[in-house]
């Protein structure tokens, strides 16, 4: 995939949230900003335009002048910090944006030769803050707007976008779902719990909270927990998976492989334990089965 820088707009007054710190609002245990940063973790450089705050990974901070000057001024501040020829522009309130959508935007921009590729929502509306742009045309149009209007703060984003040669990308409708109101926040939180993604959301949140960057086979660990619970005792499940993690960390080496090896050994032990308990292992087992 083409190298790119990411610009995340995390300012604004969030008036419909009563002035709350919208990028810091949590959905699924993670802030909205961190969720967006996870989607663009492949960026060579990530610039966040807004007030400084803790983030799950390092970013470069920028601020529009004056603060709260609107998306055009914020975008200008972000572009000034970008170095790549391609920039991904995102708002900081997209709880369901994922890396596949980011990849599709970047690849569409590269394959079409246009000046930008933006997402369209389920109703066909353009989403200029879920888009990839070529940096130079973006800088050109920002400079022309500044010359024409004498300022960038307060200008509507459509004045910028309408001057660019754009490609449109249809994607997962959830990718453009943004959180402008508390109702939106509630909807996002409910969807995580109601649509079969709660386990993945939880594991990601835990890894972020603990500062762990490790992809493991969760199905294997769940199978291990099931075997330990059924073959030994219910409390054995969480304790066994904890010990697997501890053993993998102590063994060192490559994380996922170390976890897989420790899980394999523990799973084999759980099966042997169950066989003993059920009388299917050891002397006389064959005779008992035959009887």
Task: Summarize the structure in words.
- There is one protein chain.
- The protein is 47% helix and 14% strand.
- The chain contains eleven helices and nine strands.
- The strands form two sheets. Strands 5-4-1-6-8-7-9 form a seven-stranded mixed beta sheet, with helices on both faces. It has a two-stranded antiparallel ribbon with strand order 2-3.
- A hairpin with a 2-residue loop joins strand 2 and strand 3.
- Helix 8 (218-231) packs across helix 9, helix 8 (218-231) packs parallel to helix 10 and helix 9 packs antiparallel against helix 10 (255-278).
- It is elongated and about 85 Å long.
Order of strands in the sheet with most strands: 5-4-1-6-8-7-9
Average pLDDT: 87
Shape: elongated
Q: Main beta sheet, described?
A: 7 strands, mixed
- Structure annotation, total helices: 11
The end-to-end distance, rounded to whole angstroms, is 64 Å
- Low-pLDDT segments: 285-291
Oligomer: single chain
Helix content: 40-55%
User: How much is the radius of gyration in Å?
Assistant: 25 Å
Class from helix and strand fractions = alpha/beta
Order of helices and strands: EEEHEEHEHEEHHEHHHHHH
Give the strand content: 5-15%
